Amino acid sequence: MKPLVAIVGRPNVGKSTLFNRLIRRRAALVEDVPGVTRDRHYADASWGDRTFTVIDTGGFVPGDQDVLLKEVREQAQLAVEECDVILFVTDGRAGLTAADEAVGALLRKSGKPVLVVANKLDSPIGTVQALSAEFFRLGLGEVFPLSAEHGLGIENLAGTLLDKLPAKKEGEDSEERPDDGSIRIAIIGRPNVGKSTLVNALLKEKRLVASEVPGTTRDPIDSTLTYKDKKVVLTDTAGIRRKRSIAHRVEKYSVMAALRVMDRSDVAVLLMDATEPAVDQDAKLAALAEEKGRALVIVVNKWDLIGTDQRRQEAYREALKYSLKFVGYAPIVFTSALTGSKVEKVVDIAVELAEQFRYRAPTPQLNRLLDHMVDNNPAPIVHSKPLRLYYIAQVGTAPPTFALTCNVPQGVPEMYKRYITNQIRKTFDLRVPLRLLFKERP
Ligand code: GDP
Ligand code: GDP
Asked: What is the mean pLDDT of residues 272-287?
């Protein structure tokens, strides 16, 4: 797992500007998952030899402008509970405010590494130091003067940040998790959708005999099952929550918890509550799985409260597919964790998806598919040239990743990418996210 770094502070101090600086985002590189309106509030950043995930906690708060002190404190609390290092951003020109002091007190008690940032100090060094001096009153040590907007002070801040990260663990940067033969499933979802009930129901299933191998679960939130001779490790993100104090009340926590376990999972099982239509938070979690390139099973739980009408289920499925178009490949299962109905099917599908996730397509078949695609769909014009696709090869798994050699790798239209993705999906029956890379002919 990569270390987590949180950016906290009251609205308008420049958190999202700093976030963008840290992840070194260039606007053109940001690809949005179509269908979700969202700003990205978390992204991986690389500095020196480390990669870490930065979370702009302010971004989780709706209507930033009229955020209450309570919410800023809640954010800070969440950051304290979940993150490894906290960047506490203040407005260096406005000086310390009551809200800053309240958050400062909370952070001081936490014992977590905190770096105080005095932002908006765009002026020369002398002034900068004078301005940032009052922030020492927070009792959080060194104060980092910064102009997030102009990129001043970033290198210095990032350098200290690297020192504060927990010691580097082996393999923490790798996107592909090690293949030790087990299938790792993360159970994600908003609070109260039934995650823990589902895990408990699965652990009671006689056919899913929990394996007795000691040391198989490295984490108390992991449970190990055996399904069709395969070792399956379930991670219940609600379990993380129960160990903590306040975070359980906070809906946005589910995104943070999912973020934490996603990197080491093959499959995300996203639980939703059948009695509450898909909400923004569900979409965010689905988008996270797509973005991280993890297989996804959508589980509509509490179906016992809806009834047994088959048509109702089909209508629900259609509506859901429509609102979560960007993960249209993900299978949907209707369950009742309470009665145990269809819970085994969740594991069954997750195991199947885990296999697809590591699938390797035979090259001859891929090349036949390429010919077929080229013949059947007129090449789009890119930069006033017709797009020519020369070769295709699978260059990775988990998720399956395909490289296409072509004449104009930049600017292949989204429509055409979707066409290719769908064709690959259909040909090899892959209901997992896929990645395409376009390369120029060497
Ligand atoms: P957030 O609400 O804390 O995420 O703050 P934003 O990053 O959205 O920034 C709020 C405003 O402050 C925006 O208008 C930014 O352009 C501005 N801002 C951010 N950083 C700086 C800075 O270093 N100097 C100046 N002068 N303005 C800044
Ligand atoms: P979590 O926060 O996602 O782990 O949710 P819990 O597993 O704690 O469940 C929240 C509440 O929903 C509890 O009262 C459960 O008994 C209830 N619940 C969970 N699954 C079902 C279900 O399939 N049907 C019904 N009717 N209630 C459920």
From this structure: 87
